[in-house]
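Protocol step 4 of 5: obtain the predicted structure for the target chain.
Materials: sequence only (see below). No template structures provided, no constraints applied. The aim of this step is simply to have a reference model before the mutagenesis design in step 5. Sequence pasted as it appears in the construct record:
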Amino acid sequence: MYTFSNKLKTFSFILMILGALGVGYGFMTSHKSFEEVEHLLAEESHHGGGHGEEVAHAEASHGAHAAVETHGDDAHSEVDEHTKHIEHVQHQIANRPWSALYVAAFFFMMIALGVLAFYAIQIASQAGWSPVLFRVMEGMTAYLLPGALIVLGIAAASHFIGHNNIFIWMDPEVVAHDKLIQGKSGWLNIWGFIIRGLIFIGGWSLYRHFSRKFSIAQDTAEDKSNFKKSFRISAAFLVFFIYTESMMSWDWIMSVDPHWFSTLFGWYVFASMFVSGITVIALITIYLKSRNYLEFVNENHLHDVAKFMFAFSIFWTYLWFSQFMLIWYSNIPEEVTYFVTRFQDYKLPFLGMVVMNFVFPILMLMNADYKRIPWFVVMAGLVILFGHYIDIFNMIMPATVGDRWFIGIPEISSVLLFAGLFIFIVFTALTKAPLLVKGYPFRKESEEFHY
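Step 4 output (structure tokens):
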């Protein structure tokens, strides 16, 4: 039985406290007055800041004010444009802590959801190599219910408290002047969004509850009835998952850009969550084994987990390239704007994540021998996780904060907050049952697995 060490528990609490303080600081400093934003843009203009259109507006503002007395209606029009622009930047700055919190919350939630899908696949396919890792997977999926509720809560709070900081389609004033969003309002409405989210979370959590229940019951059972039940519900869950994961990706991520859509988007998000979840399985397994808790896990198991990390990094790249290439080649204005904004304002994180999520894994994990070296897998895994955090960052931030992005206190603090919560929940769950599935039919095959 695993014992949650006081050091690790203290570490998780420290992360949460530091994260909460940083998140609070981010919210407190995000409410800029009109005059503060105007001054900020003027300074950027004076120092040649890299905010393109905003700098141009700032440069024009003095002329607009000076022209009020002499140019009548034209001057008033320029002042109105200047005012609207300042208010737009003001809103983008206010969006940043909400968006940083949402990105981090979704990132850790998707790790748990990816692991749940991977776990169901192992049971439904009756895999013989992975049962020794089942309790690690079950511990990780304990985060899914609270993590998903937090994501849904942040999205709803940004509407009810934060004045539609993340999803513009939640703003009635925007919808009233946007025919395209009006056409999608049958799907994109706040109560439909919340109800669908609760259905997704309910279905995922029910599967997790019963699969965990049957897994523990099988440890002491004299027959294989619990294994058979687990097999049946896993097969059913995978059908439910593939539909709800796609709809979740439309609701929780793609709708931040309600004018844009991609038919590949559900698969793209799935690939990111799957490889992230598998990577964290590897990291936690290596940690537990280093603490002498998983003596039945050998280098062959680590090799296979790392092999999945490698394979799904390639799969993610295939989907990224397919989505990008088809939209770029067709050059349809309402589609290509998604990538134009990312190339203009997010070139470093946008191209950097391709290096971290494809180039780095293919160079580091292609060799079979390297997949068996724990420290090497940890190094590759940390880069992959950071790359997929940046992937989620690139999905959310351009639509919510525009070119006002930065990896600073709000972003780092949000990651620390949810990392601490994730560690606490997962390692607490690991203490609730033995780390080896004793009654599972393929246990012996898994313990003796060699590749």
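Step 4 remarks: Residues 52-71 have pLDDT under 50 and may be disordered. The chain has 17 helices and no strands.
Proceed to step 5.
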